[in-house]
Amino acid sequence: MPVEPHIHLHWPALATAVLVSMILSFLWFGPIFGRTWAREMKFAPDFRPTAAAMIKATVLQLIGTLLTVYVLAHSEEVWRPFSSWGLGTTDGPNWMYGVMSAGFTWIGFQVPLLLSAIGWEHKTWKLFGINAAGNLVTLLAQGMILATWR
Known about the structure:
By secondary structure, the protein is mainly alpha-helical. The protein has helices spanning 11-32, 34-40, 51-78, 94-121, 125-148. The protein has one domain (11-148). It is built from five helices and no strands. The longest helix is centred in the middle third of the chain and has 28 residues, at 51-78. 19% of the residues are buried. The mean pLDDT is 94.
C-alpha cells in the first residue's frame, strides 16, 4: 500500500505568513527599494498611481500571496519524513524545513520567471535583483512562520 503524506495546515500560521509577506513587500518595494524599482520599471519620476489602481494591485497581490502561502505550506509539510510520512523516528529542526521549502520554491519557480522577464520583456538585471531578493526574503519569512508555528 502506498504511503501518503499527512498534511497539517495551521491556519493562523498561514494568515500570519500572508500578513507578514504583505508588510515585507510594502517595505521592500516602498521605502527600501521603491525609487530604484520604479526607475527600473521606467515609471516617470512624478508617477503616482490612482487609488483604484492601488486597490486593484493590492487585491491581486493579496490573492497571489494567499496562493503562494497555501502551496508553500504543503511543500513545507512534505519535507518532513516523520510527521508527514511516518518514516523514521523524528523530524529535523523546524527552521530547516522552512528554509528548504522557501529556497526550492524560489530557485525552481520564481527565479525562472524573473529570468524570462529579462529575456522576453527586456527587464534589467538590477530589476531582477530587486525582485528576486524581495521574493526570497518574503518566501523565507513565510517558510519560517509555517515551519515553526505548526
